[in-house]
Amino acid sequence: MSLLGNIAATYVHPRRVLRHLLSAGVREDRALVLAMGVGAMAFVAQWPRLVRVADASGEDLQMLLGGSLLGLVFILPLLMYVLAALSHLLARLFGGQGSGYASRIALFWALAAALPLMLLDGLVGGFIGPGPAKIAVGILWCLAVLVFWTAGLIEAHFSPQSGSRHA
C-alpha cells in the first residue's frame, strides 16, 4: 500500500497497518527515512506559524527557519530514537516480546500517520494564531499520536506474532 494509503488506513485500523509494516522485515534504512521524513514534514508544518511570528515580532524569518530546521530535521529524529528505546525497555518490563526495531517503527509510524493533523496545526497556528482553535487541533494531534503509538506498541510487543519478530 502507498504511504498515503497507509496513513489513511491507520485512522481506521492502526494495528493492522503496523503489522503490515513489520511484515516487511527489519529495515533500518526505512526506519531512518521515516524518522527523517517526520522531521522534515514537521519543519514544513511550522512554516506558517514562523511567518506569523516573524511578521508580528520583527524577528528575522531566516533565523527562525534555520533554528526550526536544525531542531526538527536533525535533532528530533535522534530524540525519537531515544524515546523509542525507552518505550521498548518499558514494554519489555511489562512482558513485551517485540524487538527494538518494532518499537522504533511503532513510534515513527505513529508520528508519520499523525502528520495531516500536524500540518493542520501549523496552518491554524499561522492563519488563525493562538487561541481555542489552535489548542483544539494541538490536542487532537497529540491524542492521535498517543492512540497510534499505543496501538503500535501493543501490536509490536503483545500480539501473538510479536515473539517471532527478532532484531
Would you count the extended β strands for me? 0
Order of helices and strands: HHHHHHH
The outline comes out as elongated
Q: Main beta sheet: strand number and arrangement?
A: none
| Oligomeric category | single chain
Average pLDDT taken over every residue: 92
Determine the strand fraction and express it as a percent band.
under 5%
The helix content is: over 70%
Number of domains: 1
Distance between the termini: 24 Å
Residue runs with pLDDT of under 50 for 5 or more positions: none
Number of helices: 7
- Rg from Cα: 17 Å
Structural class: mainly alpha
Structure described in brief:
With 167 residues, the protein is mostly helical. It is built from seven helices and no strands.
Characterization of the model:
The chain contains 7 helices and no strands. With 167 residues, it is mostly helical. The chain has one domain. α3 packs across α4 and α5 runs antiparallel to α7.
Which characteristics define this entry?
mainly alpha; YIP1 family protein; transmembrane; membrane; 167 residues; Yip1_dom; transmembrane helix
Secondary structure blueprint with pairings:
Elements: H1 3-10, H2 14-22, H3 28-57, H4 61-93, H5 100-113, H6 115-127, H7 132-158
Helix pairs in contact: 1-2, 2-7, 3-4, 3-5, 3-6, 4-5, 5-7, 6-7
